[in-house]
Amino acid sequence: MGNELTSSMPQISLNNQILITMLLGEILGWFLQTYGVALKPIDDAFLRMIKMIVVPLAFAGMITGIAGSDDFKKMGRLGLKSMVWFELATHSGAVLSLMKEGEHLAQ
Fold it and tell me: pTM (2 decimals)?
């Protein structure tokens, strides 16, 4: 019985479902701004829970990838590239931050 109901409904891909709900949330947020401000504590709690899940998941994924690697030379190159990108991003962020602070101090 359940299969008949679901087979007659149009199937929307997950990407489109996410896009539709994002647009609906944006529209509702625009029109109901005071309601959104009242939900700020729930928003903060949700974001903290997401961060609690994402960091261990990313760490476990990296450990699994490293442990499953057979080619340690390739892993070393990947690690070097990761460190270079991290350093570039960190230093460019610091430079931009200092430039912004310098503009603020000059005024």
Answer: 0.43
